[in-house]
Protein backbone atom coordinates (compact mmCIF):
# COMPACT_ATOMS: atom_id res chain seq x y z
CA UNK A 1 0.00 0.00 0.00
CA UNK A 2 1.26 3.43 -0.85
CA UNK A 3 1.11 5.99 1.94
CA UNK A 4 0.72 9.73 1.51
CA UNK A 5 1.73 12.27 4.10
CA UNK A 6 2.18 15.98 4.52
CA UNK A 7 5.73 17.06 5.31
CA UNK A 8 6.49 20.35 7.00
CA UNK A 9 9.95 21.21 5.80
CA UNK A 10 12.42 20.68 8.58
CA UNK A 11 16.14 20.13 8.78
CA UNK A 12 17.22 16.80 7.37
CA UNK A 13 20.77 16.90 6.02
CA UNK A 14 20.59 14.66 2.96
CA UNK A 15 22.48 15.03 -0.28
CA UNK A 16 20.05 15.86 -3.05
CA UNK A 17 19.96 17.73 -6.30
CA UNK A 18 17.33 20.08 -7.62
CA UNK A 19 17.18 21.63 -11.03
CA UNK A 20 16.04 24.98 -12.30
CA UNK A 21 13.68 24.44 -15.18
CA UNK A 22 12.13 26.87 -17.58
CA UNK A 23 9.51 26.73 -20.29
CA UNK A 24 9.67 27.98 -23.81
CA UNK A 25 7.26 28.17 -26.69
CA UNK A 26 7.13 25.47 -29.36
CA UNK A 27 9.11 26.73 -32.36
CA UNK A 28 6.48 25.09 -34.57
CA UNK A 29 3.82 27.48 -33.32
CA UNK A 30 2.79 29.91 -36.07
CA UNK A 31 3.96 33.50 -35.56
CA UNK A 32 1.50 35.96 -34.08
CA UNK A 33 1.28 39.53 -35.31
CA UNK A 34 3.54 41.67 -33.15
CA UNK A 35 0.89 44.35 -32.75
CA UNK A 36 -1.44 41.82 -31.10
CA UNK A 37 0.90 39.97 -28.72
CA UNK A 38 4.37 41.53 -29.03
CA UNK A 39 5.78 40.13 -25.77
CA UNK A 40 4.22 36.68 -25.57
CA UNK A 41 5.31 34.61 -28.57
CA UNK A 42 9.06 34.65 -29.45
CA UNK A 43 9.79 36.13 -32.87
CA UNK A 44 13.40 34.94 -33.16
CA UNK A 45 15.96 32.49 -31.81
CA UNK A 46 17.32 35.17 -29.47
CA UNK A 47 13.89 35.76 -27.98
CA UNK A 48 13.55 32.03 -27.32
CA UNK A 49 16.54 32.01 -24.97
CA UNK A 50 14.38 32.59 -21.94
CA UNK A 51 15.91 33.04 -18.50
CA UNK A 52 14.69 33.71 -14.98
CA UNK A 53 18.06 35.27 -14.13
CA UNK A 54 16.79 38.89 -13.99
CA UNK A 55 14.11 37.92 -11.45
CA UNK A 56 16.55 35.83 -9.42
CA UNK A 57 19.11 38.64 -9.29
CA UNK A 58 16.46 40.95 -7.80
CA UNK A 59 14.95 38.50 -5.30
CA UNK A 60 17.59 36.00 -4.13
CA UNK A 61 19.54 38.45 -1.90
CA UNK A 62 16.44 38.87 0.30
CA UNK A 63 16.12 35.13 1.01
CA UNK A 64 18.08 33.90 4.04
CA UNK A 65 18.97 30.67 5.80
CA UNK A 66 17.58 30.12 9.30
CA UNK A 67 19.49 27.78 11.63
CA UNK A 68 18.20 26.70 15.04
CA UNK A 69 19.63 24.76 17.96
CA UNK A 70 17.98 23.30 21.02
CA UNK A 71 19.18 21.03 23.78
CA UNK A 72 17.21 17.83 24.32
CA UNK A 73 17.58 15.59 27.36
CA UNK A 74 16.61 12.00 26.74
CA UNK A 75 16.74 9.08 29.12
CA UNK A 76 18.67 6.26 27.51
CA UNK A 77 17.88 2.93 29.07
CA UNK A 78 20.91 0.84 29.99
CA UNK A 79 20.17 -2.91 30.35
CA UNK A 80 21.56 -2.83 33.92
CA UNK A 81 19.57 0.21 35.03
CA UNK A 82 16.40 -0.93 33.25
CA UNK A 83 16.06 -3.64 35.89
CA UNK A 84 15.57 -0.87 38.44
CA UNK A 85 13.20 1.08 36.19
CA UNK A 86 15.60 3.91 35.48
CA UNK A 87 17.93 5.14 32.79
CA UNK A 88 20.83 7.44 32.11
CA UNK A 89 19.84 10.99 31.10
CA UNK A 90 21.77 12.17 28.06
CA UNK A 91 21.80 15.68 26.65
CA UNK A 92 22.25 16.25 22.97
CA UNK A 93 21.92 19.20 20.62
CA UNK A 94 19.31 19.10 17.87
CA UNK A 95 20.00 21.32 14.88
CA UNK A 96 17.59 22.17 12.11
CA UNK A 97 17.50 24.49 9.17
CA UNK A 98 14.97 26.40 7.17
CA UNK A 99 14.67 29.53 5.12
CA UNK A 100 13.32 33.03 5.64
CA UNK A 101 12.57 36.22 3.73
CA UNK A 102 13.65 39.77 4.57
CA UNK A 103 10.56 41.98 4.38
CA UNK A 104 11.89 45.14 6.05
CA UNK A 105 15.25 46.72 5.31
CA UNK A 106 16.02 47.05 9.04
CA UNK A 107 16.20 43.27 9.42
CA UNK A 108 12.63 42.04 9.84
CA UNK A 109 12.33 38.49 8.51
CA UNK A 110 9.32 36.21 8.03
CA UNK A 111 9.52 32.42 8.15
CA UNK A 112 7.43 29.45 9.29
CA UNK A 113 6.61 28.99 12.96
CA UNK A 114 7.63 25.33 12.81
CA UNK A 115 11.12 26.35 11.63
CA UNK A 116 11.82 28.16 14.92
CA UNK A 117 9.66 26.03 17.22
CA UNK A 118 11.55 25.21 20.43
CA UNK A 119 14.69 27.04 19.29
CA UNK A 120 17.11 28.05 22.06
CA UNK A 121 19.61 29.55 19.63
CA UNK A 122 18.55 31.20 16.41
CA UNK A 123 20.91 32.26 13.65
CA UNK A 124 20.25 33.91 10.29
CA UNK A 125 22.75 33.68 7.43
CA UNK A 126 22.36 36.20 4.63
CA UNK A 127 22.85 35.58 0.95
CA UNK A 128 26.33 37.15 1.24
CA UNK A 129 27.22 34.62 4.02
CA UNK A 130 27.16 37.07 6.92
CA UNK A 131 25.72 35.63 10.13
CA UNK A 132 23.42 37.34 12.64
CA UNK A 133 21.82 36.29 15.90
CA UNK A 134 18.05 36.58 15.58
CA UNK A 135 15.19 36.98 18.02
CA UNK A 136 11.54 36.06 17.59
CA UNK A 137 9.22 39.07 17.54
CA UNK A 138 6.02 37.05 17.24
CA UNK A 139 4.70 33.73 16.03
CA UNK A 140 1.37 32.16 15.18
CA UNK A 141 1.45 28.37 15.26
CA UNK A 142 -2.00 28.05 13.72
CA UNK A 143 -1.03 30.15 10.70
CA UNK A 144 2.50 28.63 10.84
CA UNK A 145 4.15 32.03 10.57
CA UNK A 146 6.88 33.66 12.65
CA UNK A 147 8.42 37.12 12.46
CA UNK A 148 12.12 37.48 13.34
CA UNK A 149 14.44 40.45 13.82
CA UNK A 150 18.19 40.80 13.37
CA UNK A 151 20.28 43.81 14.38
CA UNK A 152 21.69 45.33 11.19
CA UNK A 153 23.31 48.25 13.07
CA UNK A 154 21.64 50.72 10.74
CA UNK A 155 22.48 48.93 7.51
CA UNK A 156 19.62 48.63 5.02
CA UNK A 157 19.16 45.12 3.67
CA UNK A 158 17.56 44.01 0.40
CA UNK A 159 13.88 43.17 0.81
CA UNK A 160 11.05 41.47 -1.02
CA UNK A 161 7.81 43.37 -1.42
CA UNK A 162 4.82 41.34 -0.26
CA UNK A 163 2.08 41.03 -2.86
CA UNK A 164 -1.19 40.93 -0.89
CA UNK A 165 -3.43 41.56 -3.90
CA UNK A 166 -4.52 37.94 -4.44
CA UNK A 167 -4.04 38.52 -8.16
CA UNK A 168 -2.32 35.18 -8.83
CA UNK A 169 -3.97 32.89 -11.35
CA UNK A 170 -3.58 29.19 -11.99
CA UNK A 171 -0.88 28.82 -14.64
CA UNK A 172 1.20 31.83 -13.56
CA UNK A 173 4.96 31.25 -13.48
CA UNK A 174 6.56 31.26 -10.02
CA UNK A 175 10.01 30.64 -8.50
CA UNK A 176 10.70 28.91 -5.19
CA UNK A 177 13.84 30.12 -3.41
CA UNK A 178 15.26 28.46 -0.31
CA UNK A 179 17.89 26.16 1.14
CA UNK A 180 16.76 22.56 0.50
CA UNK A 181 18.64 19.87 2.44
CA UNK A 182 21.20 22.49 3.48
CA UNK A 183 22.98 22.38 0.11
CA UNK A 184 22.82 26.17 -0.26
CA UNK A 185 20.44 28.65 -1.80
CA UNK A 186 18.54 27.00 -4.62
CA UNK A 187 16.04 28.35 -7.13
CA UNK A 188 13.42 26.15 -8.78
CA UNK A 189 10.67 27.11 -11.20
CA UNK A 190 7.11 26.05 -11.81
CA UNK A 191 3.60 27.30 -12.15
CA UNK A 192 0.70 27.98 -9.82
CA UNK A 193 -1.06 24.60 -9.90
CA UNK A 194 -4.01 25.57 -7.73
CA UNK A 195 -5.39 28.24 -5.43
CA UNK A 196 -7.47 28.18 -2.27
CA UNK A 197 -6.27 24.80 -1.02
CA UNK A 198 -7.92 24.62 2.41
CA UNK A 199 -7.61 20.90 3.17
CA UNK A 200 -4.03 21.24 4.43
CA UNK A 201 -4.77 23.42 7.47
CA UNK A 202 -7.67 24.95 9.39
CA UNK A 203 -6.29 28.45 8.88
CA UNK A 204 -4.93 28.45 5.38
CA UNK A 205 -5.89 29.05 1.79
CA UNK A 206 -2.72 27.65 0.30
CA UNK A 207 -1.19 28.34 -3.07
CA UNK A 208 -0.29 25.03 -4.73
CA UNK A 209 2.78 24.91 -6.97
CA UNK A 210 4.77 22.30 -8.86
CA UNK A 211 8.04 24.19 -8.32
CA UNK A 212 10.36 21.73 -6.57
CA UNK A 213 10.39 22.35 -2.82
CA UNK A 214 12.06 20.09 -0.28
CA UNK A 215 13.04 19.93 3.42
CA UNK A 216 14.93 23.14 4.16
CA UNK A 217 12.75 25.24 1.82
CA UNK A 218 10.33 25.86 4.67
CA UNK A 219 9.94 29.60 5.24
CA UNK A 220 11.46 30.41 1.86
CA UNK A 221 10.05 32.62 -0.86
CA UNK A 222 7.59 31.93 -3.61
CA UNK A 223 7.95 34.84 -6.03
CA UNK A 224 6.19 35.86 -9.22
CA UNK A 225 7.71 37.18 -12.43
CA UNK A 226 7.51 40.73 -11.08
CA UNK A 227 9.87 39.74 -8.27
CA UNK A 228 7.22 40.07 -5.57
CA UNK A 229 6.68 37.74 -2.62
CA UNK A 230 3.41 35.94 -3.31
CA UNK A 231 3.82 33.22 -0.70
CA UNK A 232 5.91 31.53 1.99
CA UNK A 233 6.72 27.89 1.16
CA UNK A 234 5.39 25.71 3.95
CA UNK A 235 4.44 22.11 3.17
CA UNK A 236 4.57 19.36 0.58
CA UNK A 237 2.38 16.40 -0.26
CA UNK A 238 4.70 13.48 -0.83
CA UNK A 239 5.15 9.72 -0.61
CA UNK A 240 8.82 9.98 0.29
CA UNK A 241 9.26 13.31 2.08
CA UNK A 242 10.94 14.84 -0.96
CA UNK A 243 9.45 16.92 -3.75
CA UNK A 244 6.65 15.22 -5.61
CA UNK A 245 5.48 18.24 -7.58
CA UNK A 246 2.87 19.24 -5.01
CA UNK A 247 4.01 22.07 -2.76
CA UNK A 248 2.03 24.57 -0.71
CA UNK A 249 2.71 28.20 0.17
CA UNK A 250 0.97 30.60 2.56
CA UNK A 251 -0.45 33.49 0.47
CA UNK A 252 0.95 37.00 0.65
CA UNK A 253 -2.08 38.66 2.25
CA UNK A 254 -1.84 36.44 5.35
CA UNK A 255 1.93 36.96 5.45
CA UNK A 256 1.48 40.74 5.28
CA UNK A 257 -1.06 40.72 8.10
CA UNK A 258 1.29 38.65 10.29
CA UNK A 259 4.20 41.03 9.72
CA UNK A 260 2.13 44.19 10.22
CA UNK A 261 0.50 42.79 13.37
CA UNK A 262 3.82 41.66 14.86
CA UNK A 263 5.39 45.08 14.31
CA UNK A 264 2.37 47.01 15.60
CA UNK A 265 1.34 44.82 18.54
CA UNK A 266 4.33 42.66 19.44
CA UNK A 267 2.22 39.60 18.60
CA UNK A 268 0.19 38.25 15.72
CA UNK A 269 -3.46 38.99 16.41
CA UNK A 270 -6.09 36.89 14.69
CA UNK A 271 -9.38 38.81 14.80
CA UNK A 272 -12.69 37.07 15.22
CA UNK A 273 -16.40 37.69 14.75
CA UNK A 274 -17.64 35.24 17.39
CA UNK A 275 -19.48 32.79 15.13
CA UNK A 276 -18.91 29.04 15.17
CA UNK A 277 -19.45 27.63 11.69
CA UNK A 278 -19.70 24.27 9.96
CA UNK A 279 -19.29 23.17 6.37
CA UNK A 280 -22.36 23.13 4.15
CA UNK A 281 -22.85 19.67 2.64
CA UNK A 282 -25.34 18.59 -0.01
CA UNK A 283 -28.00 17.70 2.57
CA UNK A 284 -27.78 21.09 4.31
CA UNK A 285 -27.71 22.92 0.97
CA UNK A 286 -30.90 21.16 -0.15
CA UNK A 287 -32.64 21.81 3.18
CA UNK A 288 -31.81 25.53 3.00
CA UNK A 289 -32.63 25.73 -0.73
CA UNK A 290 -29.10 26.71 -1.74
CA UNK A 291 -28.22 26.08 -5.37
CA UNK A 292 -25.16 24.02 -4.37
CA UNK A 293 -23.04 23.16 -1.30
CA UNK A 294 -21.08 26.31 -0.48
CA UNK A 295 -20.38 28.72 2.34
CA UNK A 296 -20.18 28.15 6.09
CA UNK A 297 -23.31 27.76 8.20
CA UNK A 298 -23.41 29.41 11.64
CA UNK A 299 -24.11 26.90 14.41
CA UNK A 300 -23.44 29.14 17.42
CA UNK A 301 -22.90 32.83 18.14
CA UNK A 302 -20.96 34.09 21.15
CA UNK A 303 -23.05 36.58 23.19
CA UNK A 304 -21.86 40.15 22.76
CA UNK A 305 -19.53 39.24 19.88
CA UNK A 306 -19.21 41.23 16.63
CA UNK A 307 -21.46 38.70 14.87
CA UNK A 308 -24.08 39.06 17.60
CA UNK A 309 -23.96 42.87 17.46
CA UNK A 310 -24.22 42.88 13.67
CA UNK A 311 -27.39 40.77 13.70
CA UNK A 312 -26.10 37.46 12.40
CA UNK A 313 -28.06 34.40 13.54
CA UNK A 314 -27.78 30.64 13.83
CA UNK A 315 -28.50 28.87 10.53
CA UNK A 316 -27.26 31.87 8.52
CA UNK A 317 -24.90 30.70 5.77
CA UNK A 318 -21.93 32.99 5.16
CA UNK A 319 -21.48 33.10 1.38
CA UNK A 320 -18.87 35.83 0.96
CA UNK A 321 -16.81 38.41 2.84
CA UNK A 322 -15.78 41.65 1.17
CA UNK A 323 -16.65 40.12 -2.18
CA UNK A 324 -14.53 36.98 -1.70
CA UNK A 325 -16.55 33.78 -1.99
CA UNK A 326 -16.48 31.46 1.02
CA UNK A 327 -16.53 27.74 0.23
CA UNK A 328 -15.86 26.16 3.63
CA UNK A 329 -14.78 26.79 7.24
CA UNK A 330 -11.09 27.01 6.47
CA UNK A 331 -11.70 29.59 3.77
CA UNK A 332 -13.74 31.66 6.23
CA UNK A 333 -11.09 31.42 8.97
CA UNK A 334 -8.39 32.35 6.48
CA UNK A 335 -10.24 35.41 5.19
CA UNK A 336 -10.89 36.67 8.72
CA UNK A 337 -7.22 36.12 9.60
CA UNK A 338 -6.16 38.61 6.94
CA UNK A 339 -8.11 41.45 8.58
CA UNK A 340 -6.93 43.78 11.33
CA UNK A 341 -9.14 44.48 14.36
CA UNK A 342 -11.50 47.33 13.57
CA UNK A 343 -11.99 46.37 9.93
CA UNK A 344 -15.66 46.52 8.92
CA UNK A 345 -16.34 43.47 6.79
CA UNK A 346 -19.19 43.24 4.32
CA UNK A 347 -20.67 39.81 5.01
CA UNK A 348 -23.17 38.28 2.61
CA UNK A 349 -25.35 35.55 4.13
CA UNK A 350 -28.11 33.24 2.98
CA UNK A 351 -31.16 33.48 5.25
CA UNK A 352 -34.70 32.29 4.62
CA UNK A 353 -34.16 31.61 0.95
CA UNK A 354 -32.60 34.97 0.07
CA UNK A 355 -29.28 36.79 0.43
CA UNK A 356 -28.71 39.57 2.92
CA UNK A 357 -25.67 41.74 3.62
CA UNK A 358 -24.40 42.70 7.09
CA UNK A 359 -21.58 44.98 8.20
CA UNK A 360 -19.51 43.21 10.84
CA UNK A 361 -16.74 45.02 12.71
CA UNK A 362 -14.07 42.39 13.36
CA UNK A 363 -12.31 42.64 16.71
CA UNK A 364 -9.72 41.07 18.95
CA UNK A 365 -11.02 37.99 20.76
CA UNK A 366 -12.97 39.35 23.72
CA UNK A 367 -12.00 39.07 27.38
CA UNK A 368 -15.58 38.07 28.30
CA UNK A 369 -15.92 37.30 31.16
CA UNK A 370 -13.08 39.26 32.80
CA UNK A 371 -9.95 37.27 33.67
CA UNK A 372 -10.51 37.38 37.48
CA UNK A 373 -7.51 35.33 38.61
CA UNK A 374 -7.81 33.82 42.09
CA UNK A 375 -6.66 30.95 44.33
CA UNK A 376 -9.37 28.56 45.48
CA UNK A 377 -9.42 27.46 49.10
CA UNK A 378 -11.61 25.55 51.51
CA UNK A 379 -12.18 21.92 52.35
CA UNK A 380 -12.77 20.70 48.81
CA UNK A 381 -10.84 19.01 45.98
CA UNK A 382 -9.98 22.40 44.42
CA UNK A 383 -8.13 23.78 47.45
CA UNK A 384 -4.87 25.35 46.28
CA UNK A 385 -5.74 25.72 42.60
CA UNK A 386 -5.00 29.03 40.88
CA UNK A 387 -7.68 29.60 38.25
CA UNK A 388 -8.91 32.23 35.79
CA UNK A 389 -12.10 32.64 33.80
CA UNK A 390 -12.12 31.13 30.33
CA UNK A 391 -12.75 33.72 27.62
CA UNK A 392 -12.25 33.93 23.85
CA UNK A 393 -9.09 35.98 24.46
CA UNK A 394 -7.61 33.35 26.79
CA UNK A 395 -8.72 30.57 24.44
CA UNK A 396 -6.79 32.28 21.65
CA UNK A 397 -3.71 32.50 23.85
CA UNK A 398 -3.89 28.82 24.86
CA UNK A 399 -5.13 27.58 21.47
CA UNK A 400 -8.44 26.34 22.94
CA UNK A 401 -11.95 26.39 21.53
CA UNK A 402 -13.20 29.97 22.15
CA UNK A 403 -16.73 28.70 22.79
CA UNK A 404 -15.73 26.57 25.78
CA UNK A 405 -17.03 27.98 29.09
CA UNK A 406 -15.56 27.33 32.51
CA UNK A 407 -12.41 28.19 34.44
CA UNK A 408 -8.83 27.32 33.54
CA UNK A 409 -6.20 26.01 35.95
CA UNK A 410 -3.01 28.08 35.64
CA UNK A 411 -1.21 26.89 38.78
CA UNK A 412 -1.37 24.66 41.83
CA UNK A 413 -0.05 25.02 45.35
CA UNK A 414 2.01 22.21 46.84
CA UNK A 415 0.08 21.97 50.08
CA UNK A 416 -3.52 22.29 48.97
CA UNK A 417 -5.91 19.38 48.72
CA UNK A 418 -5.90 19.77 44.91
CA UNK A 419 -2.28 18.57 44.82
CA UNK A 420 -3.54 15.06 45.59
CA UNK A 421 -5.99 14.90 42.70
CA UNK A 422 -3.66 15.32 39.72
CA UNK A 423 -4.83 18.71 38.49
CA UNK A 424 -2.46 20.25 35.95
CA UNK A 425 -1.97 23.60 34.27
CA UNK A 426 -4.43 24.32 31.44
CA UNK A 427 -7.01 21.87 32.81
CA UNK A 428 -10.50 23.31 32.32
CA UNK A 429 -13.10 22.94 35.08
CA UNK A 430 -16.46 22.60 33.33
CA UNK A 431 -18.89 21.47 36.03
CA UNK A 432 -19.18 20.23 39.61
CA UNK A 433 -21.78 17.57 40.45
CA UNK A 434 -23.61 18.33 37.22
CA UNK A 435 -23.71 22.09 37.76
CA UNK A 436 -22.00 24.11 35.03
CA UNK A 437 -19.11 26.36 36.07
CA UNK A 438 -19.28 29.72 34.30
CA UNK A 439 -16.80 31.80 36.32
CA UNK A 440 -14.33 31.74 39.20
CA UNK A 441 -17.02 33.19 41.46
TrEMBL record:
Residues 1-25 form the signal peptide. GO terms for molecular function: serine-type endopeptidase activity. The lineage of its organism: Bacteria, Pseudomonadati, Pseudomonadota, Alphaproteobacteria, Maricaulales. PANTHER family: PEPTIDASE S12, PROTEASE DO-LIKE 8, CHLOROPLASTIC. Substrate binds at residues 69, 114, 144, 216-218. It comes from Hellea balneolensis. Residues 295-326 form the PDZ domain. Keywords: Hydrolase, Protease, Repeat, Serine protease, Signal. This is Do family serine endopeptidase. SMART domains: PDZ. Gene3D superfamilies: 2.30.42.10, 2.40.10.120. PROSITE patterns: PDZ, PROKAR_LIPOPROTEIN. The active site is at 114 (charge relay system), 144 (charge relay system), 218 (charge relay system). The keyword Protease applies. SUPFAM superfamilies: PDZ domain-like, Trypsin-like serine proteases. GO terms for biological process: proteolysis. Pfam families: PDZ_2 (PF13180), Trypsin_2 (PF13365).
Amino acid sequence: MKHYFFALFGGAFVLAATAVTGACADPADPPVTASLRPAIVPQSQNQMRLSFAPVVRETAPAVVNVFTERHVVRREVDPFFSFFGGGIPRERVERSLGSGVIVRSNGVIVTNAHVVDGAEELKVILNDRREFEAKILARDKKADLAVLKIDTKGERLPVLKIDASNSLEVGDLVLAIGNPFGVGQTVTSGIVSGLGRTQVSDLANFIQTDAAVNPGNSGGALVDMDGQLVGINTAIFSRSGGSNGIGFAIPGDLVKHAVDSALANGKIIRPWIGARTEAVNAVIAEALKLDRPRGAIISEIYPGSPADKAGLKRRDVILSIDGSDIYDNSGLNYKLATFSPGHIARVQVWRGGKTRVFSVKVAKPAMIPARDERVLDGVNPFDGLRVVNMSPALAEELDFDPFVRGVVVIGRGRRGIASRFGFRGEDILLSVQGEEITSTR
